[in-house]
Write the structure tokens for this entry.
Amino acid sequence: MRILFVLLAIACLPSSAAWALEVTSIAPVAAPPERRVTLTGGPFSADIQLFLGSSRLTPAAVEEKRLFFDVPELPEGEYALVLREPSGARTPATTFRVLELLPRIEALSPTTLDACSLQQ
């Protein structure tokens, strides 16, 4: 009877894959669109699924202990970040903050000036 109880208890436990997937750090924890983010933890497989809010993202690169993704064009705010393996293993939702994309200068013309005057 004791053996039957032990076997039944083992059968009811989730497989080790259900809790093996984890995220131990996110750097940075908040970023504007187009910024690269690094997740550490794992183990991450090549076919892992990454969700930021309701958006499914394709990782930029996947290693066993690190995963990289670029923040998509999303409105500023907080989003749930979840990783899911095809086996069903998933991470608990972690909050990731998308920041406002700051304006930047991508080109300047002319690039040099021959003379400059100060007008008062």
